[in-house]
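Example for tutorial group B:
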């Protein structure tokens, strides 16, 4: 009786615990392959005759297409909404009326710039369930005591409402309205293009009222094609063979959308284009004098179906003027520009979707998804080259845009970044993580062809490391690798996928797919076998980025002659050259001393790979040491350096907080290189942070610091110190030495 009586209570407790366990991962969302929660099907609102007919749009200084100042079209004029009494419920009504699934946030005080015209709504009191903003209680349409400095803005979700149908309540003003459809696609029609990845040519189709429809091409322009191609990750468009499509259209009757499209050519998304006049088609009548719209897009070099080997042999590749750094996936990162032979960043003042799109197209991607500000994708270290950038959207390069050469008041905390549209390559369909506690971790399983059929299998964990894990996380769109695993017995995965199907994987870290990395192919070799010994990863949306300050090294370098009897601790910790073992106790060692200041410019805190249980305690110095820094003057001399405290205020765990730095002063033991046997001459002095990619970072290109060093036997000069990748290719080639973090310990 007692057991039966309390069973419902236990069940409730278990359900609550389950909900809490699931809730902790809700912010991670659902990556590809995980089903989304079911949504209610959209039903077009039925408005009473006395409801004011309005249309909405998001305008202003936008950094995403699904955000902006709320503007209302009423009485043949566009106006704004006052932020008085505005709530997330009102934002919800706005976003749903525009066809978005929900509102994410809202912003008062004209965040997206001041609007013009009348302020149509003030003191809105919405419940969030109204079918249109006009049904929310307010002071009355057009009655307001606000100024445009109080214009409200909203951010809507990326997802659209399934089955959304655009209802034009103002047919006489269609040219003033923005396009609102559920989805857009390029559908390959010709068999030669259906097999290609990515799809570059086909019908342009919009999804309206849950049905895919073609667009009549009678009013279609090249500007429209430019926007469609940009949305799908292509920087440009080209002509196509219209005769073939005419033959196809005769055989299959198209279903046309009711409207035309009118883009100016500099929009980042179709939703920013205007509606064209409605196509007046009678029943059973095709597009009068026209055909369905076809676009043919030009992919960027990284996504071209066949590499242009002939072009590369005939012409030397020019040094690019723009690059992206610190991004988790292809097509995103901090924007850096080359000026006077040195790479620098762009200040985010006035940074917009228009300028970001110019960057994306210049780099061979499509239009910009988002223009990011505030060092969101990490901070640079060099100069700030550009400020207050303003583009028309048609420039070939961001360097052609107007900008303020003075970057006064700008710091790297304001570095601008972009996220670009890239072609859908389908890489994520041939890879999955299985058995993990959440979608961001698990055993790596790949889809390969075996004996004429596709099968899932595991990856051999021999030589599995950080760079391979980085490629996996990038391929799945899950950010950066946070940990790598060579045993996955705690992630059982699919039993049918236990067999090893890929071995000998070696990645450089820049590949878009694991299949692009070096591997054994069909000749598998894996002593460990699959199953519990298969490779695994855990991914994270952010990562640290360790960067050495070269100016500190250059300014603090000096020599010291120290007696051997004072270097006993350093000798025991291998901080002297190998020849020191033969040196008598009364001899001197010549030490090249300098300070090191390591910054964490990434998006998450740096934590040592080794846990407390594996730290080495040195009785002589009475401290623990971690092997994450290598100093090199020709032979690699390994130093063990004390890590500072985790927080900037010197307390807590060991590591480096975002935006902070860790300084190893020149007067600390082992903060030197033993140059006692070094002959006078000119040298390249190198410091490598995070050798052999032991710890995941968002950017490994800046882990090497190089200086020119002149030693005359009595004095030393350190000059031209810089981080790897901070100078032009031509200048960098004058500094021989390591090109990456791969270091062989000696």
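The residue assignment follows.
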């Amino acid at each position: 009786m007692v057991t039966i009586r309390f069973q419902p209570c236990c069940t409730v407790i278990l359900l609550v615990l389950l909900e809490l366990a699931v809730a902790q991962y809700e912010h991670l969302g659902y990556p590809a392959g995980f089903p989304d929660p079911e949504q209610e099907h959209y039903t077009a609102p039925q408005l009473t005759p006395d409801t004011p007919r309005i249309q909405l749009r998001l305008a202003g200084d936008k950094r995403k297409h699904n955000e902006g100042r709320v503007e209302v079209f009423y009485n043949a004029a566009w106006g704004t909404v006052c932020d008085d009494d505005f709530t997330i419920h009102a934002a919800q009504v706005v976003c749903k009326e525009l066809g978005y699934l929900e509102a994410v946030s809202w912003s008062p005080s004209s965040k997206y710039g001041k609007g013009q015209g009348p302020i149509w709504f003030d003191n809105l009191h919405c419940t969030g369930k109204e079918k249109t903003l006009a049904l929310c209680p307010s002071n009355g349409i057009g009655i307001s005591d606000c100024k445009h400095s109080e214009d409200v803005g909203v951010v809507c979700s990326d997802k659209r409402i399934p089955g959304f149908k655009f209802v034009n309540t103002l047919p006489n003003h269609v040219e003033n309205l923005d396009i609102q459809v559920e989805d857009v696609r390029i559908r390959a029609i010709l068999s030669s293009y259906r097999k290609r990845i990515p799809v570059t040519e086909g019908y342009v189709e919009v999804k309206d009222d849950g049905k895919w429809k073609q667009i009549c091409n009678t009013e279609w322009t090249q500007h429209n094609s430019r926007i469609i191609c940009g949305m799908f990750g292509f920087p440009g468009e080209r002509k196509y063979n219209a005769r073939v499509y005419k033959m196809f259209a005769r055989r299959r009757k198209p279903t046309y959308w009711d409207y035309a499209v009118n883009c100016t050519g500099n929009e980042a998304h179709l939703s920013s284009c205007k509606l064209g006049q409605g196509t007046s088609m009678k029943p059973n009548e095709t597009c009068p004098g026209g055909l369905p719209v076809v676009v043919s897009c030009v992919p960027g070099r990284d996504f071209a179906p066949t590499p242009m080997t002939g072009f590369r042999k005939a012409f030397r590749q020019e040094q690019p003027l723009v690059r992206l750094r610190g991004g988790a996936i292809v097509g995103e990162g901090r924007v850096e520009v080359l000026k006077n032979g040195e790479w620098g960043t762009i200040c985010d003042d006035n940074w917009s979707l228009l300028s970001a799109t110019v960057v994306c197209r210049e780099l061979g991607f499509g239009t910009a998804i988002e223009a990011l500000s505030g060092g969101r994708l990490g901070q640079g270290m060099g100069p700030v080259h550009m400020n207050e950038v303003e583009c028309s959207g048609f420039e070939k390069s961001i360097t052609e845009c107007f900008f303020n050469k003075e970057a006064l008041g700008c710091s790297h905390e304001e570095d601008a970044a972009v996220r670009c549209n890239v072609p859908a390559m389908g890489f994520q369909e041939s890879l999955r993580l299985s058995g993990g506690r959440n979608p961001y971790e698990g055993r790596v399983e790949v889809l390969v062809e075996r004996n004429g059929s596709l099968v899932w299998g595991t990856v051999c964990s021999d030589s599995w490391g950080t760079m391979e894990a980085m490629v996996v996380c990038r391929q799945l769109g899950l950010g950066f690798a946070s940990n790598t695993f060579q045993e996955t017995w705690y992630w059982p995965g699919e039993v049918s996928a236990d067999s090893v199907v890929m071995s000998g994987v070696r990645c450089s870290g820049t590949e878009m797919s694991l299949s692009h990395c070096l591997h054994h192919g069909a000749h598998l070799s894996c002593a460990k076998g699959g199953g519990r010994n298969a490779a695994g990863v855990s991914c994270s949306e952010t990562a640290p980025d360790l960067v050495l300050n070269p100016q500190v090294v250059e300014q603090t370098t000096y020599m010291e002659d120290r007696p051997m009897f004072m270097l006993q601790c350093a000798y025991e910790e291998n901080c002297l050259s190998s020849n020191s073992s033969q040196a008598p106790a009364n001899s001197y060692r010549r030490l090249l001393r300098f300070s090191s200041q390591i910054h964490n410019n990434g998006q998450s805190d740096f934590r040592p790979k080794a846990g407390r249980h594996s730290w080495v305690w040195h009785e002589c110095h009475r401290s623990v040491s971690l092997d994450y820094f290598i100093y090199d003057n020709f032979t690699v001399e390994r130093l063990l350096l004390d890590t500072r405290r985790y927080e900037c205020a010197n307390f807590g765990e060991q590591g480096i907080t975002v935006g902070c730095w860790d300084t190893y002063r020149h007067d600390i033991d082992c903060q030197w290189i033993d140059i006692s046997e070094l002959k006078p001459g000119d040298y390249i002095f190198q410091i490598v942070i995070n050798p052999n990619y032991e710890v995941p970072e968002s950017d490994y290109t800046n882990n090497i610091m190089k200086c020119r060093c002149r030693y005359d036997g009595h004095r030393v000069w350190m000059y031209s110190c810089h981080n790897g990748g901070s100078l032009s290719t031509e200048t960098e080639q004058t500094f021989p030495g390591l090109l990456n973090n791969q270091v062989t310990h000696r």
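The two ends are 73 Å apart (CA to CA). Compare this with the pattern of hydrophobic and polar residues in the output above.
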